[in-house]
Amino acid sequence: MTTLTDIAVAGIEDQPNNDNNTNNALMIALDVDGTLVDHDGHMSPEVRSAAQAVVASGHDVMIATGRSLNATLPIIEQIGLERGYAVCCNGGVTLRLDPTLEAGYEIIHKATFDPAPALKALRERLPNAKYALEDEDGVFLSTERFQDASFGVESIGVDFQTMLDSTAVRVVVFSSDNTSDEFNEAIRHIGLSGVTYSVGWTAWLDIAAEGVTKASALEALRRKLGTDPANTVAVGDGRNDIEMLTWAARGVAMGQAADEVIAAADEVTASVLDDGAALVLRGLL
User: Structure pTM?
Assistant: First the structure.
């Protein structure tokens, strides 16, 4: 069974729980792809302006994305977020943002796992799929030089055994030889255990440590900040946002989201192409 390892870096685990304190600011969790940016990675001026305005208003705005750290940092910069927190790798990595730090941030929580059982099961069922793995040092290892914008760094081509021997924060699987339905059926047949996973809109799979989601990372931050659960807002569009939308007191699905994502939300905004995130954010000012 895959083992969850928490790397406690001075941060969430080392700071007092503030549940008994009062924090009247809203805690606003924002997905990136399909929410703040379109599927070409473009953030519209209206969404950028609205996000910057909410950040400037003093609410606790947090990016919560499946992207890895280096692909998340440009989004943080675009919306003017200098202090606070961000969740990357679908909850696998949590950042504390502080402009006084040398890099402007520090990693305060990282959940790693042994990817070998899941990778072996997937390889047997999907032998022609492409595999990528983010290790505990933020290095991406991949088969067939598999590369995606969500990695944020160039992947290093390795053999499959090297990936099996690695410790992972995130594993990505992509199959160009299967339809989305075929891919989903293969994943259901495998019955992955000991990990948390979400299937994308195409033949794409994101895997994290067991029990790790955007929602689990956000809940740890909510408790640290002492935010009332009633003051939580989340906006997203993907299957990896379902837990986050359910966790928030106000979960908002983007207009183009699939039925199961919309079902998990409290309301639906306009699509990413119609600046749906901006409509939500302007309403919070």
Answer: 0.88
